[in-house]
Amino acid sequence: MARAGTLEALAADYTRTAVLKGLKPRAVLWRHVLRNALLPTITVTATQMGYLMGGLVVVETLFRYPGIGGLIYAAARDKDFPMLEGGVLTVGVIYTLAGLIADVSHALLNPRIRFGAAE
After folding, report:
1. Are 31 and 18 in contact (CB under 8 A)?
2. Taking the CB of residue 72, how many other CB atoms lie within 10 A of it?
3. Euclidean distance between CA atoms 46 and 39, whole angstroms
4. Residue 110 DSSP label
5. Which end of the chain is more exposed for a tag (fewer CB within 10 A), N or C?
6. Is the Cβ–Cβ distance between 15 and 28 less than 8 Å?
7. Residues 38-69: pLDDT tens digits?
């Protein structure tokens, strides 16, 4: 996905303009190409965090790994509701933080997105 985004950004007009302005290839790559190529990759990575967290219960139960997934499973099996709520809350907070980090990195990489900018 990162490769496809990079190839698309390399063929974009803004990259051609930066090269024609005389910028060094390294500056074009870092300032123009990678900033725009990484945006979809960051979004997909943050979204996949939810699937990884959901798969914890299955993987940790199957392979007998100690972790939060096994803890959630044991709490559900034993009807330990406070522990189950705590585990689900922890997974939810991690997923929300992944989304927040993705949004902040989008704002840092994309100059068209700004925090609280009123138009």
Report:
1. yes
2. 22
3. 11
4. -
5. C
6. yes
7. 888 888 888 888 788 878 888 888 888 888 88
Q: What pLDDT does 59 receive?
A: 87
Tell me how far apart the 2 most distant CA atoms of the chain are, in Å: 67
Residue 93: both structure tokens together: 């907070």
**pTM, two decimal places:** 0.72
C-alpha 73/C-alpha 55 separation (Å) is 12
Torsion region of 12: left, alpha or beta (phi above 0 gives left; psi -120 to 50 gives alpha): beta
User: How distant, in Å, are the alpha carbons of 18, 72, 85, 110 from that of 6?
Assistant: 15, 40, 42, 15
